[in-house]
Write a structure and sequence with these properties.
480 residues; mainly alpha; Growth Hormone, Chain: A; 19 helices; globular; MFS family permease
Length: 480
């Protein structure tokens, strides 16, 4: 067991564990997003369409927040962007809980979405900055595990809190967001890569968002992600409304949706080893197909047991999708535009979160739940096909970026220090004496024959890898 834990969680940088801890604490109190649809329809007596518009406003705010956060992450820095978004979200969470009436709540949701989702690009960019390429799938799985451990606990606890006072949902959520902001303030250091000084001559603008939107390979991937987000986000909008319509209580919804988090907590750390060596595009295609089928089961659900079966199925797909999805985004993002790329990727989630409740609420109210859930299944099939078709171009792009990436400078210097021989003193003859002619000797060959100043290739590359591990040893996380 100890060996498995070391393989799953050992050797990651210290700053990653601060990010991980903040994620866990924040998600333990993520009450509002889980129960907002029920709060709006049950406590505020909004219609399904009105509730969809409020949830959509949160998504629109999130879209603005992720784009703004992505630009600020690259220009201003990871740490100040995270702190501004986290402290702002904690304040606005309380404001939304105290808001009354449709327009106040709509505006509160819009502003909260901007700040709550604005932290995403900075968080993701910082994680990419501190975690080496070879450990990113493992790191994303661990972070995803923390997200869902908190989510599973929050779903149950929020269901109990909602029975006493809905305001508790907002206050607890704001409190955990504030604690996360304090952790970021005290323990997190800035990780934005240093930019090279501008060259002499007329100043020209660097690459920006236009560069990303012209990146067809990346934008195709973002578009596919957007459509599957439309399906996934129905579990926070259409699904709780459907369960309420079937006479199931908010507490029942909490226990059913907690299955998602519990499954991920129990099994997510095994996923990286399970998918290791498999074609990434096929893994993503299979995962989206399973997600579509899982939501399609809701067309036949009417009891808590069948809703639970649906959750089990689409959770398996989500577990397969998340680590491959996150690692691929990191590989497709050039270092100097990492925040913007993460922001545009987060935009697919924010835009999906904005449209999912609006479209889902409209279809649910006017065409019925069966049409909505079978439509989700159809989208899953189409996205799976898109992942297969677009996969080769993505892998070529990721390979090209890896080949252009600079070699770790410390590792190169360490190897050079080990392999370059010390200088040899040369004794000159006295002035005026003849310099004896020496026979030219053929340079010796074979092991130990002389200095090599280049980094070893092939099997000898292990020397460089060992040096790289030594240089990172001081930044490792806890020795699990």
């Amino acid at each position: 067991m100890r060996g498995w834990l070391q393989q799953a969680a050992g050797g990651l940088p210290r700053q990653f564990w601060f990010l991980w801890t903040g994620t866990l604490i924040n998600r333990l109190g993520s009450f509002v997003v889980v129960y907002l649809a029920i709060y709006l329809t049950g406590q505020q007596h909004f219609s399904q369409s009105q509730a969809g518009l409020v949830l959509g406003a949160y998504g629109v705010g999130g879209a603005v927040g992720t784009m703004t956060g992505g630009v600020l992450t690259d220009r201003w820095g990871r740490r100040p962007t995270m702190l501004t978004a986290q402290f702002g979200a904690a304040t606005l969470m309380v404001g939304l809980g105290l808001a009354q009436g449709f327009w106040q709540i709509l505006l509160g949701a819009l502003l909260l979405g901007a700040f709550a989702e604005g932290v995403r690009p900075a968080f993701q960019a910082m994680m990419v900055d501190v975690v080496p390429d070879s450990d990113r799938v493992r790191a994303y799985s661990l972070n995803y595990w923390a997200v869902n451990l908190g989510f599973a606990s929050a779903a149950v606890l929020a269901g109990l809190a909602a029975q006493f006072d809905y305001l508790l949902l907002f206050l607890v959520d704001a409190g955990t967001t504030l604690v996360t902001a304090i952790i970021s303030l005290i323990f997190l250091a800035e990780t934005r890569p240093h930019r090279a000084p501008p060259a002499a001559g007329p100043r020209r603008g660097g690459p920006g968002l236009g560069t990303i939107f012209r990146d067809r390979t990346f934008m195709t991937f973002v578009a596919l992600n957007f459509f599957i987000v439309l399906v996934i986000m129905q579990h926070l909008s259409a699904m709780p409304i459907a369960m309420s319509a079937d006479g199931l209580s908010p507490a029942t919804f909490g226990w059913v949706i907690a299955i998602n988090g519990l499954m991920i907590v129990a099994g997510q750390l095994f996923v990286p080893k399970l998918i290791d060596g498999h074609d990434r595009s096929r893994v993503l295609a299979l995962s989206t197909l399973i997600i579509g089928v899982g939501f399609g089961v809701n067309a036949f659900a009417g009891t808590a047991a069948l809703y639970a079966v649906s959750v089990v199925i689409w959770t398996v797909g989500e577990m397969l999708q998340s680590p491959s999805n996150s690692a691929l985004i990191a590989e497709l993002s050039p270092a100097q535009l990492r925040g913007r790329y993460q922001g545009v990727n987060s935009l697919s989630w924010s835009a999906g979160a904005a449209l999912a409740p609006i479209v889902g609420g409209f279809v649910q109210q006017h065409l019925g739940g069966t049409v909505l859930w079978l439509g989700c299944a159809a989208i899953g099939v189409l996205v799976a096909a898109g992942q297969i078709v677009s996969g080769p171009a993505r892998e070529r792009r990721a390979k090209a970026l890896r080949e252009r990436a600079p070699v770790h400078p410390v590792a190169v210097e360490t190897v050079a220090a080990e392999t370059v021989a010390p200088p040899v003193a040369v004794v000159l003859p006295p002035a005026g004496s003849a310099v004896p002619r020496q026979r030219r000797r053929r340079p010796p060959s074979g092991p130990g024959s002389g200095p090599r100043t280049s980094v070893p290739r092939g099997p000898n590359r292990a020397i460089s890898d060992r040096a790289d591990r030594v240089t990172r040893k001081g930044d490792n996380g806890p020795d699990v």
